[in-house]
Specification:
Layout (H helix, E strand, L loop, with lengths): L8 H9 L6 H14 L6 E4 L2 H16 L11 E5 L26 H8 L3 E6 L27 H4 L7 H8 L5 E6 L5 H7 L2 E4 L19 E6 L2 H11 L12 H21 L6 E5 L9 H16 L3 E5 L4 H19 L23 H7 L2 H14 L8 H18 L26 E5 L8 H6 L2 H6 L5 H6 L3 E4 L7 E5 L4 H12 L5 H18 L3
Parallel strand pairs: 2-3, 2-4, 7-8, 7-9
Antiparallel strand pairs: 1-3, 4-6, 5-6, 5-10, 9-11, 10-11
The structure holds glutamine.
Length: 534
């Protein structure tokens, strides 16, 4: 039996005062009910014990009584993707290889959230090691998107690879979830499940304790129903970390931060009404995009224009090479990162794997799923001496061109390209450039799981076409649920989360505003017409 909250008038008053809609115990109880009711979604790989969640909630409630809440996140329920280390729950990466792996420490991002009083409800299901876009490559079974009827709840993809995190938030099993985004894994599930999904600039959040898939692309991301919750978590996690050498250090943060403040001050002072200039990349309007998505994109731009934004067509000519480059670079890095799972250093050792006989091979053959094995083979090949020049090196060059494309369209220079010597005022900036880019996150709405199973590998990979470019360039991007079925992405210059959020928050109001809602409804109707010919 789940305990219920014994309320008193004073408690309600304090809880209200602290900004809660309900007390931590009520919230935890509701989430536990939702977890039990939604087991079929397969959103979790491992759950925290109910009594632990409730006792943490009780402590938060007591702190609320005494007006001693540690932070706005105190008592909030957080789910953690299963490739982020937790000291009290296994970290399996949804892989048979790590089925028994228990981390001896919390990842920095988890530690920071717990310090603020957040309660970890469980570890979320995902594509094995983050490789996939529909959370179907998991020994725990596929994740499904929460629906309005039980049948609908089993039918559709929640996206991936952080599909469990998105499903958990969408079904009310937690308030906020952490995911990881290497090529779109937070943004795509957020788009499919009607949520806010944020991938920060590369290097802003610590990856200490995050199991590496492709280090040069991996970022921790945040999923929630509202931008306020995502931003609250972002503020807590956005710090340097000595334990992660790729986490941007204080000096660079301050320098780029100053530049961005200056930029937005100049924007507000010099442009009429401080209007934002929104870039619309022509190359993202790909043939495969569903008609409804295109209409929704149009409606979004029309809505932003009504907010006073200036809509500017831009060209990112190397976009079409971004996807192939990503699918060379990510597997190449993965093949190196996953070498440690050999049954000796890490991983479930196979019984045929004995000293004096064949080592490694039986363990690796049995421990990894098909998709992971495919990527290891692809990556090992592109790094081999015979293929290196034609594949890996070329892909690195393409990555640089994609980065340069972005830098050439943004008004603000890339803070990482600056030498630190040149003053902001002396640095050239593109007076015709744009502040952010707005485009759809996904080509269409969430597909049926049965259709996902019929997709070829290339069809699956092609679904990442709109998310991968920002990953290659390390740019901040957030998917906003302008419709219930497809999200719009706002992409900013490196480090410019500020500008990105300002525009994203305008989009958050789109469904609420009369004009925006009407535009979104019309586009959604078109989306239905195109996508649902059952
Ligand atoms: N779908 C992409 C891949 O399989 C992205 C995954 C991710 O961002 N973790 O590589």
């Amino acid at each position: 039996m789940l305990p219920t909250l014994r309320r008193c008038a004073a408690a309600s008053k304090i809880i209200k005062h602290c900004g809660w809609k309900e007390g931590p115990i009520d919230a935890a109880t509701n989430a536990l009910v939702n977890i039990r009711l939604n087991e079929h979604l397969n959103a979790f790989t491992n759950l925290q014990k109910e009594e632990v969640i409730l006792s943490e909630a009780k402590k938060a409630q007591e702190r609320a009584f005494k007006r001693e809440l540690k932070h706005a996140l105190d008592g909030r329920l957080i789910a953690i993707k299963d490739n982020i280390a937790t000291i009290d729950l296994p970290t399996t990466c949804a892989s048979y290889m790590l089925k028994d792996y228990q981390s001896p420490f919390d990842a920095t991002v988890v530690e920071r959230l717990r310090d603020k009083g957040a309660i970890v409800v469980g570890k979320t299901n995902m594509d094995e090691f983050g490789m996939g876009s529909h959370s179907t490559f998991s020994p725990f079974g596929p994740v499904s998107k929460p629906g309005t009827t039980p049948l609908e709840s089993l039918a559709y993809s929640a996206g991936g690879s952080s599909g469990g995190s998105a499903a958990a938030v969408a079904a009310g099993m937690c308030d906020i979830a952490l995911g990881t985004d290497t090529g779109g894994s937070v943004r795509l599930p957020a788009s499919y499940c009607g949520l806010v999904g944020f991938k920060p600039s590369y290097g802003m959040l610590s990856r200490w304790g995050v199991v590496a898939y492709a280090n040069s692309l991996d970022t921790v991301g945040i999923i929630a129903n509202h931008s306020n919750d995502v931003k609250a978590v972002w503020k807590v996690l956005n710090f340097p970390d000595k334990l992660d050498p790729t986490c941007v250090e204080t000096g660079t943060r301050m320098r780029v931060g100053r530049m961005i403040e200056d930029f937005h001050r100049v924007r507000r002072d010099t442009r009429k009404d401080g209007r934002f200039r929104i870039g619309v990349p022509m190359e993202y309007n790909v043939e495969e995009m569903a008609e409804g998505t295109r209409k929704l994109w149009d409606a979004t731009l029309e809505y932003l224009a009504q907010w006073g934004c200036e809509i500017v067509p831009i060209s990112l000519p190397h976009t079409r090479h971004a996807l192939p480059a990503y699918y060379i670079l990510a597997p190449a890095e993965a093949s190196s990162n996953l070498a440690r799972y050999d049954g000796i250093r890490y991983g479930t050792r196979h019984e045929q794997d004995r000293d004096g006989e064949t080592l490694f091979a039986p363990t690796r053959a049995a421990g990894f799923g098909d998709e992971v094995r495919r990527r290891i083979l692809l990556g090992t090949y592109s790094l081999s001496s015979e293929a290196m020049g034609n594949y890996f090196v070329q892909a690195q060059k393409v990555r640089r061109l994609v980065q340069k494309d972005f830098d050439s369209v943004f008004a603000m220079p890339n803070g990482l390209d600056c030498d630190g010597e040149t003053k902001w005022e002396d640095r050239p900036w593109n007076s015709k450039g744009v502040d952010v880019i707005v485009c759809p996150t996904a080509l269409g709405e969430s597909p049926k799981l049965e259709d996902v199973n019929k997709m070829s590998q290339t069809e699956r990979y092609a679904g990442d076409v709109l998310t991968v470019p920002a990953s290659l360039a390390g740019l901040p991007a957030v998917s906003m649920p302008v419709s219930k079925k497809v999200g719009m992405q706002v992409i900013g210059q490196w480090g410019d989360e500020k500008g990105m959020w300002e525009v994203a928050v305008m989009l958050e109001k789109m469904r609420k505003g009369e004009v925006g809602a009407q535009l979104a409804d019309e586009a959604e109707a078109a989306l239905n017409g195109v996508e649902r010919v059952d």
